[in-house]
Amino acid sequence: NACINSDSEFYERIINEAKGKCNIVTFGTNENDTIFCKSIEKRGDAFYFDVKTPDFEKEMCITMPGIFNVSNALCAIAVCHVLGIPEQYISEGLINARVSGRMQVYKSSDEKVAIIVDYAHNKMSFNALYNTVGIEYPGYKVVSVFGCPGCKAHLRRIDLAKEADEHSDYIVITEEDSGEEPFESI
Q1: DSSP 128-185
Q2: Of 32, 97, 31, the residue nearest 66 (C-alpha)
Q3: Cα gap 9→18, rounded to integer Å
Q4: I need a surface site. Which of 30, 83, 90, 136 has the fewest CB within 10 A?
Q5: How far is CA 80 from the centre of its chain?
Q6: CB of 122 closer than 8 Å to CB of 129
Q7: Largest pairwise CA distance in the chain
């Protein structure tokens, strides 16, 4: 089985490679997808979205922040569809899903400050994080605090710095497992 995100920029390439080799299940925002998301609405700290599958049509909810997590939820629904997992377990699982270090939000009591902890570590995940921050926290100043590991991923350092520079009001570079490389070099 192949569960393929139709919203991926590489969709055509992936689908062409999978054709004729396995059962294909598509998911995304395209009406022709096997698992189709018809609408997305943020209510409080949760995202609600209407899902249509070959087995059911229902409003689902995820309580993890980050609009990109709706796409992750659709992927989970597609995998559950392939495995034959009943809808009630899918919806319960999505409501209770949490990943430590992934879009953990801490707010001040007056809600003027929101701190988001995320283990974004490459250009794509930084971009998704910043896009979510722009949508979910309009008007907030963005202070980015991050580091890069030593002795590897040299191009990633440039990508992360560019993404942070494009989306942040302030940037703090901190040490992250420098290994044998001096922090100043990183």
Answers
A1: HHHHHHHHHSTT---EEEE---TTS-HHHHHHHHHHHHHH-SEEEE-----TTS-TTT
A2: 97
A3: 16
A4: 83
A5: 19
A6: no
A7: 56
Segment 94-101 mean pLDDT: 88
Tokens at 63, concatenated: 């309580």
**Distance of alpha carbon 110 from alpha carbon 133, whole angstroms:** 18
Give the pair of three-digit tokens for residue 39. Answer: 């609408």
Cα 46 from Cα 44, distance rounded (Å):
6
Q: What is the DSSP string of 49-83?
A: EEEE-SS-EEEEEE-SS-THHHHHHHHHHHHHHHH
Q: How far apart are CA 38 and CA 46, in angstroms?
A: 17
Joined tokens for residue 30: 């395209």
At 53-82, the pLDDT tens digits run 999 999 999 998 888 899 999 999 999 999
| pLDDT classification of 135: cutoffs 50, 70, 90 | confident
| pLDDT at residue 15 greater than cutoff 90 | yes
Tokens of 183: 């922090």
Q: Are 90 and 81 in contact (CB under 8 A)?
A: no
